[in-house]
Amino acid sequence: MAYTTDRFVREVRVTPILITDPPLLNLSGVHQPLTPRTVVEVETEGGHVGLGETYGDTEYLTAIQRVAPRLAGTDVSRPTALRALIDDVLGHDDAAATAADVPASGLRGKRDLAKLKASVFSVFEVAYLDAWGRHLGVPVHALLGGRVRDRVDYSAYLFYKWAGHPGAEPDSWGAALDPQGVVEQARLFVERYGFGSIKLKGGAFEPDQEIAAMHALRAAFPDMPLRLDPNGAWSVETGLRVARELTGVLEYLEDPSAGVDAMSRIHAETHMPLATNMCVTGFDEVPDAFARNAVQVVLSDHHYWGGLRATLDLAALCRTYGVSVSMHSNTHLGISLAAMTHVAAAVPNLEHACDTHRPWQDEDVITRPHTFTGGAVEVSDAPGLGVELDTDALADLHRRWKDSDVRDRDDVAAMRAVNPDWTAPRLPRW
Ligand SMILES: O=C([O-])[C@@H](O)[C@@H](O)[C@H](O)[C@@H](O)C(=O)[O-]
Ligand SMILES: [Mg+2]
């Protein structure tokens, strides 16, 4: 093939945005009315633009903005080469802490420089693969080895929630503050999107209330796989009790307690399958957790595991050790959903419906937002990610970012606006 500079990066645009978010409750507090995301555009000399989307919090945005100017002249067909460049810009002290262990925002396990770099790499890797796929006229999943399924199943992701943000009109979901409200929300999810699995974000109420909610869901949806995720809110004793009470009700329990010791004890004593996006969130945490059988389902997430190819590596590792793999989600829009769907389509051993927050978002930055039919998103065979940027929407959401002083997700502060005494709960909370 003739040497060509078409694939070389001409310009990178990094755009912070604020998107609306409903009042979803979790262990830390409540989602804010506005939450940050970052959109990356990588334009090649050949005129193709690759897209990426990730966290918008200051820590991520600043790191992405530092790396972006260094990308001019790099080749979008060689995203792996970016790792060295990112090390150069952000430093080599991988173990250096970047934030408190389980921060208010995210609930995604330990934070160090290696993990921040994995996130920075990920957003650019997605944009490079999108641009490269557009050049070649092939979908991103083809660059990952090809799709093994035509549709990716997602699960309904229920949250306890208020009817609306304080002082604002109720949203179209209404309140869910007890088992009946949770069941009503599940019915809306199934009606609107056809989901065939259900996850409830727990850790917001006393364990007995959340156990009752799971029993109510089981009664209302006798055949659906169910999950509960309190983000490590419980002591081992509480985790053991909940696991026993929900045996036969849940397909898995997600992060009942924090840490490998607690998780391995709960599994050993109850045999309840345990999933995690907190105690195994990077490759360095895999050996100990697998050796001690602390997790039976790893929830991958390309945004922090280090991109789409790293997600495939993780899936291969899980396969080797007989551990299941599925997918974690944080608040996100359609560029992220496209990337999640392409990689999920290429993971042979994806054994559970993936998480997605997408139904909670009323806005998007792509021209044709995805639809869920029968709870699934169809895998696109269009070049790249198969989504087009809505430049007007991006400009509007960026203007909102400029006009606001919200720069980070802070569920604790959002709860404090209602309950001035609220502080981030210490684990275990119950
Ligand atoms: O959006 C939330 O409130 C979730 O709690 C999120 O931050 C978690 O990272 C996540 O969804 C989880 O599965 O733990
Ligand atoms: Mg979780």
TrEMBL record:
Entry-linked CDD domains: D-glucarate_dehydratase
Catalytic function, reaction form: D-glucarate = 5-dehydro-4-deoxy-D-glucarate + H2O
One of the Pfam families matching this protein, by short name: MR_MLE_C
Pathways per UniProt: Carbohydrate acid metabolism; D-glucarate degradation; 2,5-dioxopentanoate from D-glucarate: step 1/2
UniProt record similarity statement: Belongs to the mandelate racemase/muconate lactonizing enzyme family. GlucD subfamily.
Alphabetized InterPro entries for the sequence: DgoD-like, Enolase-like_C_sf, Enolase-like_N, Enolase_C-like, GlucD-like, Mandelate_racemase_C
Cofactor(s) needed for function: Mg(2+)
EC number: 4.2.1.40
Keyword Lyase: yes
Keyword Transcription belongs to the record: no
Catalytic residues of the enzyme: K201 (proton acceptor), H328 (proton acceptor)
Protein name: glucarate dehydratase
